[in-house]
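Q: Now give one record:
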Amino acid sequence: MRHCCEFDAYDIWYLKNTDDYTNRTLFMGTCPICNKSVAILLQKRSKTNGIETIKKVGQSAITFVSALRREKELSRNSLNRMKLKPKPYGWRYGLNKEKKDKDGNVSIDQYAVDFYGNSELVKKIK
């Protein structure tokens, strides 16, 4: 993206196709120099196969993005969140944690842990 300087978008939305436009992508970012919001909509016109670009800066960008919120199918942030799995995958190893309560009773929790830091409780032994 470009406004005062070149910078990366912090989020990208993939919008629903309409009768007139396909391949609609909305890039959103904040200019690091002037701290203004920047929104760029790229879309392909169905009839002429030409690419249209709509660029909004400042308050008009914020209202433009809020108007397009209902047309959002996917966003890059949500796709990145889907890639992060809360459960372990790949190579896993076992981790045993011993717990003692006030009465002196011992319980062991067994976890499956992967090398990405994800863990899952497998079994509790009392």
Remarks:
- The mean pLDDT is 88.
